[in-house]
Amino acid sequence: MLEAVLALVILGGFFILRGIAATVIFFYLLPEGDRCLNCDAVTVRVESKGWNSILPWFRTSWCLECGWHGLLRHGPLTPSPATDKSLARHD
């Protein structure tokens, strides 16, 4: 009986460690910022109560150019031309 419990604890521990390792690797594979993975266009942040409450360190995004949607890491955002003073036209 003790051997069965010990084997179950060890196999369960390996299963949990595998999930944690996969999550950490997945976290570092995702790019930072707001650029699309497919077409490198600027994405729009999407409000998702499920994902944002479970995984707050990810950014739920949607690309208007190609329709990609998924998770990105928080990072530097691409400045928009309307708010970027360096892109303003001086006549």
Share in β-strands: 15-25%
Q: Overall 3D geometry? A: elongated
**What percent of residues adopt helix (DSSP H or I)?**
25-40%
Instruction: Provide the spatial order of strands within the biggest beta sheet.
Output: 1-2-3
Spans of at least 5 consecutive residues whose pLDDT stays below 50 are: none
Q: Could you give the distance between the termini?
A: 85 Å
Largest sheet report: 3 strands, antiparallel
The H-and-E topology, N to C, reads as HEHEE
Our count of domains comes out at: 2
How many beta-strand runs?
Answer: 3
| Class based on secondary structure composition and strand pairing | alpha+beta
On the 0-100 scale, what is the average pLDDT?
Answer: 82
Rg of Cα set: 21 Å
Total helical elements? 2
Task: Tell me about this structure.
This protein folds into 2 domains: 1-30; 32-76, no CATH class. Strand 2 (58-63) and strand 3 form a beta hairpin. A 3-stranded antiparallel β-sheet has the order 1-2-3, with no helix packed on it. It is of the alpha+beta class and 91 residues long. The mean pLDDT is 82. The chain is 37% helix and 15% strand.
Q: What's the short story on this structure?
A:
This protein is an alpha+beta fold and 91 residues long. It has helices spanning 2-29, 49-54, and strands at 43-45, 58-63, 69-73. β2 and β3 (69-73) form a beta hairpin.
